[in-house]
Amino acid sequence: MEHLFAQNSCKRGFHVQVELKNIKNFNVKHPPSICKNVECVKNIVKFTTEDLLVLNIRITQALNEVEILTNAILNEMLKELRKYISCIYDLCNGIADLDLIFSFAQYSTRSGSTRPKFGQYMDIKSSRHPILDIINSIVTIDNDIFASTDKNLNIITGPNMGGKSIYIRQVALLQIIAQIGCFVPATFAQFRICDRLFTRIGFGDSIESNASTWVLEVLHLILIVHATRTTLIKELNGILPSLTKHSLVIIDELCRATSCEEGSSLAWAICEHIMQSCAFIFFATHSILITKLQDLYCNVLNYHMEALPARDFTTRLTYTYKLCPGVTNFDDYGLTLARDVKMPEHLIENAIEIEKCLRQTRVALPDNPSNEADLILDNCIQNLLNMKDTECLNISNIQSVVLEMMNKLKENRRKNIDPLMEYIDSDNEV
């Protein structure tokens, strides 16, 4: 007989447990007279004795008495506290407010934080993601954010894992942080008061592992089921009727759960509708068709997350996570990423051949630079309005902005014959 020790459980209380080497020699039906309530599990025998039973009863009685006394004391204390319950609630609220203010103060004292201003447009310089900014192992990249009633639709393109989703979430988080009264991680920050924040963002990616939704799909070799068109329409039906001119709309990969043609058409129509509301819209997409909205409307801005393209699908993409103006300037980043995550080589080669065939038969989207002059004029007006808001509007600055506009218009005329430029004959007309 070895390993004799005491045990305790809710069902048996204190009891004895014995480990037997040869359990077959022990008869559970005829145990020693000292053993009571014998139970055998494998080579473990559990039992109690009369003395232990008595002690267990006394322990149970003592616990019941302690519980009765405790309840009596608590009831008396509650009766006394009910007289001051309103003060206690006020104290709890005061502690919560103090904790919030202390948290704001602690976060705002971090280097690189600034006190936000509020005006008629959103203009944030060198902003950083507020969550990634406090993770010591991650070096955040500064990016600017701008939106106004004249430039209220921002379309962001770029490769997978380039930072599009993180950027638009950063816009929403900074808006929330500023409006609750905290400093924001930026060198300069001006916000427009937002009355409603609408988001449609997929959560299939992983910030912790720096993996986008597409990369996780490849890594797991499964098809992640996205929202169906019915779900999409329901979500948009909840947004569109409630949209106001002071709303902030964040959309990530709109209409990606259906075919490319239908998805791009729906996304185009939705963007055309919501951009007329003067709401600030940040839209991340892989659809190059959506970027053609800038050729038709002056209130559209195209941006892309910069990345160094691969060569012949053999080198790894280098991400800068920097927001740059214009549309992403290279394709086939998905195939490069597929090789980076070690997909079978024969699948990659087959995909490359298929992609080449599709590219040869695909009709390129035509460029439409017809409204470049309108964009130049609109940018000039926007610069003048910004100067007015920042109280920098004077004769010298006006001349500088107008001169820059005229130079751009003349350069545009050299590239493309524009009817608007027929009225501009010489530099002296400035």
Describe the overall structure.
The chain has 430 residues and is α/β, with parallel strands linked by helices. The chain is 40% helix and 20% strand. It contains ten helices and 16 strands. Strands 12-13-14-9-15-16 form a six-stranded mixed β-sheet, covered by helices on one side. Helix 6 (260-274) links the parallel strand 13 and strand 14 (280-284). Helix 9 (372-389) packs antiparallel against helix 10 (395-415). The chain is elongated. It starts with a strand and ends in a 15-residue tail after the last helix.
DSSP summary, beta strand count: 16
What is the structural class?
alpha/beta
Helix content: 25-40%
Number of helical segments with 4 or more residues: 10
Instruction: Name the strands of the widest sheet in spatial order.
Output: 12-13-14-9-15-16
For the biggest sheet, the summary is:
6 strands, mixed
What portion of the residues fall into strands of 2 or more residues? 15-25%
User: Can you give the mean pLDDT?
Assistant: 78
Coarse shape: elongated
Spell out the helices and strands N to C: EEEEHHEEEEEHEEEHHEHEEEHHHH
Radius of gyration: 34 Å
End-to-end Cα distance, whole Å, is 107 Å
Given as residue ranges, the uncertain stretches (5+ residues, pLDDT < 50) are 211-229, 425-430
